[in-house]
Amino acid sequence: MKFEAAENSLEGVGDDGSAVSIPFTEILALTSNVILTIPEGSESSLRVYSYKALDVTDEIKKYYLNELPPYLDPRSANVTVINSANAGARTGEAVYTSLLRPLFKELGVVHEYILTESKSSIQSFAGSLVPESGPHTIVILSGDTSIHELINSLRPISEATDLTILPIPTGSGNALMTSLDLGSPTSAMFSMLHGSVRPLRPFYGSFPPGSKEVIPPTDDEPDGLTRIFALVVVSWAIHAALVGDSDSPEYRKLGNDRFKIAAKENLERGAAWHGKLSYVSSSGGKLEPVELEDLEHSYVLTTSISSLEPGFKIAPTAKPLSGSLELVRLPFSSGEEIMRVLMLAYQDGAHVGEPGVLYTEIESLRVEMGDSEERMRRWCVDGRIVIVPLGATVEVHSGVENVRGWNVYIVA
Ligand SMILES: Nc1ncnc2c1ncn2[C@@H]1O[C@H](COP(=O)(O)OP(=O)(O)OP(=O)(O)O)[C@@H](O)[C@H]1O
User: What's the CA-to-centroid distance between 305 and ligand 1, angstroms?
Assistant: First the structure.
């Protein structure tokens, strides 16, 4: 076929005179002899058009793939596709077979495919990666938890090695990819081919010895602390409580309403969380810790992204992938008042302007636990619950350059 670029589409004419029109919005990539598209409206499967003639004009330059990016090129990376079978509505298999596999076949991306068989599949795979086999690329069809498990299961290495993660969002939340405007499999695949490689720079929580986790702990740090890397959230007080409660079998039966119901019950309880809280702000170059006199808290949350769920802008000025970290803290007050303030997050993050709300970019946060009741000592790290010992101190630190020696990148 011969194609020409029109204003918003590629117009093609076959040797037999047949015509075809491809809107730019459906193009995934152009190579020197094919046009790869994902037609809208159909059951999302890759369509390939061969062509003999096409002028690569300015309008279509951004779709052109001269050569494979190094992280997909079999000569420079080991590519593995992991499909986290339990993620979201379990669409990973369909996305792989109708989009990703044919795309990789067309482009010559040699890869291994792993369909997870259990809760520990991702952990075992990540733990098996070694620097000796060179740079790795992991395309992961999943939500946030699977990516969290992947980076937290990397084993420590002494020789810095590149690991590029290409998430294709198929989970129920996908907060990380949504925050990067790559919340659909199609947009993620476009970015995989044409995006820029950027350090992932996860932040982390540091948990003292004796902390109990729902998922077995990853490697302990030499100082006895357990460092858990986070991509989305590290929180304490009401946020951790509602995530923890909603994970129980009786709440799970309630489906997605379980978060709302758990939030309501925690707010109605009207309890304060006690602890000595200090933070190091990263604005103004002042690295002295600021200690709050107020020891009673309702909401303490750190995040590197702006919205934990669509529309809920808890940290409106967050800059994903920059390594920066935002703290949101509400003092103890009535359940109704906490609810009123938090609901303002749905109004473009208006809660941060409310009196009493502490919202600041931080280098680190430190909390000494002051509650005897175990349920008040729960922390949430990307949805995973960690219960810390009485009187323990928990720290949260802003984004790091590497994860246990691995230079972890994402393409966005
Ligand atoms: N075959 C399997 N059996 C049991 N658990 C699995 C299996 N495959 C994957 N898992 C686990 O299921 C979870 C899937 O989480 P993931 O984040 O990918 O999706 P999600 O929870 O739907 O999305 P989000 O975290 O964005 O809301 C992970 O903990 C993963 O280890």
Answer: 21
**pLDDT tens per residue, range 185-203:** 999 999 999 999 999 999 9
The token pair at 176 is: 């990380």
ipTM of the complex: 0.97
Find out whether the beta carbon of 70 lies less than 6 Å from any atom of ligand 1.
Answer: no
144 lines ligand 1 (CB under 6 A): yes
Beta bridge partners of 230: 203
Percentage above 90 pLDDT, the chain: 79
What CATH number belongs to 78-195? 3.40.50.10330
- Is the beta carbon of 266 within 6 A of some atom in ligand 1? no
In the predicted structure, residue 219 carries a pLDDT above the cut 70? no
Q: Whose CA is nearest to atom 19 of ligand 1?
A: 87
One fold for both 78-195 and 203-397? Answer: no
- As a whole number, the mean pLDDT across the chain is 92
Backbone dihedral region for residue 353 (phi beyond 0: left; psi -120 to 50: alpha; all else: beta): alpha
What CATH fold (topology level) applies to the domain 203-397? Answer: Tumour Suppressor Smad4 (2.60.200)
pLDDT of residue 216: 45
Mean pLDDT of 113-131: 96
Query: What's the pLDDT tens digit per position in 335-359?
Result: 999 999 999 999 999 999 999 999 9
